[in-house]
Write a sequence for this structure.
């Protein structure tokens, strides 16, 4: 049973556009929601993370929106750039424990120049 | 700079052979993890360790084993490689266990092909 469902599987956006990736979770005990970014040939790296006590967190062009009642969270990339082309993974865990981190299946983002 | 080094980067082996993938971290982290990444499945946890001599099974541990004899290394062994174990393997480490926000630091992966 997949605990974190991520969509879409792939996304193509024009330079300057907004990229939106959505995730939904089932386990209400989850209390830490990170997003990881992975470039080809590299390991994933933490991009941004949120706790459920806030509805939004922004870091530069990257924003996480969190809807606790709907058990959904999303990543918005404003003014998308070709350098943002990567695979993005949402994840969730209980008490921030890395060993309990459950990943979505990933979204491959392509930003066309 | 601290880092995680995985070796080899690419490996081709035959069905039934024993294979060991190396992972070495210089973060001095207590926690280390092995994931496999497959198209359509994302990242799935194989084994993890909270410290020296501690190992735990993850979601997809069948056919894999790990041992932790020091802080820096967590080798992953495939006892008898199977074609279903063809995948990209990632090692990761983190500083805290439960209760803390501790990002995972990943290596660059080992691409394993079992023929």
């Amino acid at each position: 049973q997949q605990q974190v469902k991520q969509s879409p599987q792939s996304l193509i956006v024009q330079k300057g556009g907004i990229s939106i990736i959505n995730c939904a979770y089932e386990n209400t005990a989850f209390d830490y929601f990170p997003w990881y970014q992975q470039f080809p040939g590299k390991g994933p790296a933490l991009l941004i993370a949120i706790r459920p006590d806030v509805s939004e967190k922004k870091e530069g062009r990257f924003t996480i929106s969190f809807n606790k009642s709907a058990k959904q969270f999303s990543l918005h990339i404003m003014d998308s750039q070709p350098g943002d082309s990567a695979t993005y993974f949402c994840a969730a865990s209980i008490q921030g424990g890395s060993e309990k981190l459950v990943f979505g299946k990933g979204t491959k983002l392509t930003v066309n120049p | 700079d601290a880092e995680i080094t995985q070796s080899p980067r690419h490996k081709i082996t035959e069905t039934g052979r024993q294979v060991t993938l190396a992972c070495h971290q210089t973060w001095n982290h207590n926690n280390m993890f092995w994931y496999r990444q497959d198209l359509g499945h994302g990242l799935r946890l194989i084994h993890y360790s909270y410290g020296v001599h501690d190992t735990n099974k993850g979601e997809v541990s069948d056919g894999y084993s790990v041992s932790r004899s020091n802080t820096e290394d967590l080798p992953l062994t495939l006892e008898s490689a199977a074609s279903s174990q063809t995948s990209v393997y990632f090692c990761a480490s983190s500083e805290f266990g439960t209760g803390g926000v501790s990002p995972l630091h990943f290596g660059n992966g080992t691409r394993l092909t079992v023929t």
